[in-house]
Amino acid sequence: MLVLLLLLGTSLVGAFPHKAPRKSCGLSKYRFLLPSELKAMREMKEKFEETMLLSNRKCNTRIFHRKWNTAELSVPDRVLLVEAELELVMEALERPAAPGLAEWRRRPLSFLAQAREDLRGCVGVSPHSPSLPGLAGTLATQAPAHQPSGKLRHWLHKLDTAKRRDTDGCLEASAILHLFQVLSDLKCAALREECA
């Protein structure tokens, strides 16, 4: 009788499909960034600004300029926004750096890579999914419960256009010069409804 019950229990478990556990969305640690992390970001930004002043690079670094505030977005839109921003920043920082800048990037890159990974747990984007231009579409197909707002879709399109049009050097400048805006957006996403 015991053997029959065990067999029946095993077959019933296989009869009902179960979802694979979804990676948790743990952004609370980004509500308040550690002073040491902020210091590493600030030092990298300052070193980059010094080298940029010495070069004759001419860039339009207005990619991150928006006519709206992050707090105006829904909580899911905020997460999608920061994920897209981090994709751009990581692509820029993972490229070969000018001599003397590689060392300054190491700690910020580690922090930003972790934040990007944590965000992927919230939006359902796999590490192998394409970045923009397919990001908005990928997010919509992988997370059908939430469609990005028109405001966010427009901004994602603008980001995609800049990625195709601007040089690597100008994308790097935009990413580094607006790094603290990205961190502010990350904090807003972590604060959820409390971000105002």
From TrEMBL:
Localization terms from the record: Secreted
Alphabetical keyword list: Antiviral defense, Cytokine, Secreted, Signal
GO molecular function: cytokine activity
GO biological-process terms attached to the record: cell surface receptor signaling pathway via JAK-STAT; defense response to virus; innate immune response; positive regulation of immune response
Domain of life assignment: Eukaryota
Nucleus in keyword set: no
Keyword Secreted: yes
Cellular component annotations (GO), alphabetically ordered: extracellular space
Signal peptide start and end residues: 1-15
Predominant location: secreted
Family of this protein: Belongs to the lambda interferon family.
Protein name in UniProt: IFNL3 protein
Species this protein is from: Crypturellus undulatus
